[in-house]
């Protein structure tokens, strides 16, 4: 296989909504999608940490992803879902408004984000893509999960 063919290998992304914006994650990091379950809060955690839930005997930390990204706080409803993700050995739940779709993109379809961060959470957005006039942000799970490990400790 040539380098060009390998570079254009499609990546499948799970797209989801937060407020009125669309985000996505590499589908290979997604373990399951489950309905919103009230989390048990933990003391001394950031406001975006909703707490923990019992996932078949495993204590799963749940992060309100919209709040973590600085979006306006919204009321949780039955439409909210928890995307259970795994990065390395870390399992975490990401609370989102709703799951949208699964899309397949190549590296050529994705563009790096402009460097406009103020340094607070650099690198959370890995790339951007435009699909049918919709701007979709591709999240870098390593930045989210790394912060989750230090925040939950």
Classify the helix fraction into a percent range.
Answer: 10-25%
CATH superfamily: CheA-289, Domain 4
The proportion of strand residues reads over 45%
Number of domains: 1
Please report the first level of CATH classification, the CATH class: Mainly Beta
- CATH topology, by name, is OB fold (Dihydrolipoamide Acetyltransferase, E2P)
The unreliable regions are 1-5
State the helix count. 3
Gyration radius, in Å: 16 Å
Structural class: mainly beta
Instruction: Give average pLDDT, whole number.
Output: 86
* Shape label: globular
End-to-end distance: 45 Å
The assigned CATH architecture is: Beta Barrel
Helix-strand pattern: HEEEEEHEEEEEH
- Count the strands? 10
Strand order of the largest sheet: 8-1-2-10-9
Largest sheet: 5 strands, mixed
Protein described:
The chain has three helices and ten strands, in the order αβββββαβββββα. The protein has 153 residues and is mainly beta. The protein has a single domain, classed as OB fold (Dihydrolipoamide Acetyltransferase, E2P). The strands form two sheets. It has a five-stranded mixed sheet, with no helix packed on it. The chain has a five-stranded mixed sheet with strand order 3-6-7-5-4. A hairpin with a 2-residue loop joins strand 1 and strand 2 (21-26). The longest helix is centred in the C-terminal third of the chain and has 12 residues, at 141-152. Residues 1-5 have low confidence and may be disordered.
